[in-house]
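From the shared-data thread, chain only:
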Amino acid sequence: MDNIEKSIAFLDSIGVEYEIFRHEAAASIEQCEEIEKIISGKICKNLLLRTTSGDKVFLLMTDGRKRFVTKEVSKKLGSSRLSFADGEMMETLLNTKPGSLSIMSLMFDKDKKVFLAADRDVFREEFICCHPCDNTATLKIRTEDVIEKIIPALGREIIIVE
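Structure, as tokens:
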């Protein structure tokens, strides 16, 4: 079973409705903007961040059009200066290749080593659109289902940042 199938099985198991759109690989925000026109929704940008010491790792959901300032986000998360985790860490912790990261990747983090954080604006949209741990497809999920079903099923709490 590939990551798309695993993501769909997870959503089905917790009763989340979704639409899935298959497309060419889309790893950049520019490629995602083209897909957004087809799916009528904004694709959430997901970043894997780590502290300098590597003792904390965060999956940050944000709007790809917003300017990302590491120093500001680090402060809001109450952590030492954060940097981007490398692809190897992403694959080891979340069974996800770079360019395919999403909240769905947390289903692979059985030890709950990765903290979930999100820009408040992500939850102001009616839908959250994200890759199912594979950037050749995009899921469109009601934001309320992400908050009320997916996050609890993943056993997570979310840190909201402005």
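Helices lie at 3-13, 29-39, 70-76, 87-94, 143-153.
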